[in-house]
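Dissemination and training. As part of the outreach component of the grant, students in the summer workshop were shown how a complex can be specified as a set of sequence lines and then modelled as a single object. The example used during the hands-on session is reproduced here so that future cohorts can follow it. Participants entered these lines:
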Amino acid sequence: MYVQVVENVLKLNDEMAAMNRRKLREAGVFSLDLIGAPGCGKTALIEATLQCLSPELRVGVIVGDLTTQRDADRMAKFTDHVVQINTGKGCHLEAHHVMQGMSRLDIEHLDLLFIENVGNLICPVGFDLGQDVKVGMFCTTGGDDKAAKHPYIVCESSLLLLNKIDLLYHVPFDLPLFRQDVHRLNPDVTMLELSAITGDGLDGWIKWIDAQRQKSAARRQVLESTAHSNSRNIPL
Amino acid sequence: MHELSIAEAILDLAGRNVPAGATLRSVRVSAGPMRGIDPRCMELAWQGLGRAEVALNLSVRPWRMKCGDCGRQWEQAELAERCDCGSPQVRPIGGDELQLLSIEVDDAEEEERNRPCTCRLSKTS
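and obtained this result:
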């Protein structure tokens, strides 16, 4: 006997992601899921970002790796709010990992949350974590064909970063071709070129985060005022 | 190897849809090409779940492409980088679906109802 189902396979993950998203938005936390291959500079970028952001901002980090606490140890020099998630055999973070990480952070007192995914350009893309935005990261040393070879991350990201721009003239990397591939796959995506080590281009990244935080806060205010006016219209 | 997580999610979702008293026999799943699911890796991941009695029928959809210049839309197995009109402005549309379409179950009660009457058969033979 056949039973028709027609349901999203990752329904359970998506439900948990929706719970994470609700909790983060209620707490007024803007969250980013940073996805990139191993060695592309995700941790270095978060380290540099933590030093560039306004000291008034309270920033949390959930970092995923198969094993070790090394990334959390690196970032703990710049913020007290770091949680390392070890996935063991898992090549990506799932919503339950982030839920677990959030339970170990004082979410109510954060403004911004970075989720550094396990180093991988493929698997993490399809798993919603409850973040506000997905940020895909490439690097010049990884080769100029990586955007063309990984269309899912290009199409799903709100922002794409090209890191290690300081090494552009030391490695074979066709920047116009890379830009063309990105634009072909996702004409709407913003792309920033930077170097987490030298700091080139970091100001654009910091400005982008600030602008996104403000947009997100404005959206939340509209939703709250709509909910408030709706509740006033409910007859007692 | 996200196939293992996906295999677990398929089995979990399928299990939730099995009617009471029935036994799961197969699942039918459709995946968009964006998901990057390799059918051979998926088969290995499925075997790793230890449920050999449940068959996985996975179909990976072709890429659906659109040309930004001539507007043509078409499907093909590999991601295209150029349209027949010569334009490189081709991009994929959708392709990230991942759905459990249906499951096949053995319904013990139904089998019992449909079972031929062996005593009558034995009398006629």
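Chain B touches chain A at residues 1-2, 4-6, 9-10, 12-14, 17-19, 22, 29, 34-36, 68, 79, 81, 88-92, 96, 98-107, 110 (CB under 8 Å). Students were then asked to discuss how this feature might be tested experimentally.
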